[in-house]
């Protein structure tokens, strides 16, 4: 591996605050890096500095001599009179330092890329001007993919791609030579493509080995280590606490320091979604009928989207609708929401149905109010499942904390406006949620909070989304729309949909990144049945060992509190506690490794 880009003690500030503080990073010629972080943390700024479009306030960014960098920005400025051919293989839109190279960018190759990105209908002589924003973005992405580059930088490349297009892009990037840096909120894509994850937060960049799953585990470990550090600090305060307990009655109300935060991170994980319980709640709120579609027909111009479709949606159903752009998913949701009449057939709605439709647009937000006022305009208190929240508490669930709740709606970013849009919908206390691409513009932490909320929401949920991770996390049933008049139940979920649209077995769609790398080496990591049985037996042993160590750890904490004034005894107990915690951490790591084998 050879180093191609270096950031040396780079700092960057804006009037709103410091974005980076003396950040040093390096990129090798075969790196595949995913960048994650909250909206506004500085991900796009980092990309702009890496490409030298924007200079740091201090420090320096260096490129290897003759480095070819191709970058897809968030905003594009394509000449409206240019054709697809002009953009993709011509000179109408080029990364800096590139020239048109007609000799290798043949029409067949361009057509393969355009088809993979979900635009088989586009002719090479089609004008760019009349195209939608999503189509123009895909044309620009195609222009980068047909050109060889030493470093390919993509800012939200999965926006405007359907599930099949995202799977194709992941496969294409894995086969491509050169370094890759991608900013995306698509967690499945991060896991499929990236071997390193950079987290942008707190004016710095932390590097983790692996994709989204590895980054999530590493974050959890970081929290655990921080909790242990805090626990050690708390131990030093125990003498003072003991003295306060012996003091006057006025000083008897004391805070309970939480020194077991690291254990709670693992032990307090809620159980999997109880579908039966949620459906029972949904029946109570909704009644037995939600939607009954009979002979439904939907058209878009002369094109038939659905023809003679019968469909029953019941209380507590959690349904995902998959389909290519233009297949009719949004139209179907609008019909269910009552915003559009069908072109034939009938739609029966239950008398207790209170639908809420999340559109892809943001026009319904009041620009003249502040954020909290915009929520309270809908409701001051909200009941979600078994929880009752104030408007401010609901805002906090969606990442609006502190003074941010008083920000004017007009000043919010696109991602923040999307969060507010979701928040206002939930504040109306609907019992049917119709979500059209709900993950657009949301950062990964907000997505996790949204999924956690939807996971225990007891109403009927119908989601049209290209986010595979969200689909598999919060829905139980998948239907496919293929633009040929059918609405097809897919028991095999996303994999069955991808197999249907590709005409092959799911192949790459079901490969993890680790499996893809293993396939390249010609090895097979799938454990045999014998290995799985052995792993399950060892898992049972480890679980008993972890339980025993947890009990011992709790007992040592109790003894530490009891001997708070005996410095010698505290030193002995602390050493014993450290040994137990190390043994427990090793057992947990072994458990995680064996769980992969046991399946």
From TrEMBL:
Family annotation (PROSITE patterns): ABC_TRANSPORTER_1, ABC_TRANSPORTER_2
PANTHER family for the chain: ABC TRANSPORTER ATP-BINDING SUBUNIT (PTHR42855), ABC TRANSPORTER DOMAIN-CONTAINING PROTEIN (PTHR42855:SF1)
Protein name according to UniProt: ABC transporter ATP-binding protein
Keyword Iron-sulfur: no
Domain of life per record: Bacteria
Stretches of the chain forming a coiled coil according to its record: 525-590
MF annotations from Gene Ontology: ATP binding; ATP hydrolysis activity; DNA binding
Domain named ABC transporter: residues: 5-227, 291-509
Keywords: ATP-binding, Coiled coil, Nucleotide-binding
Pfam family name, one: ABC_tran
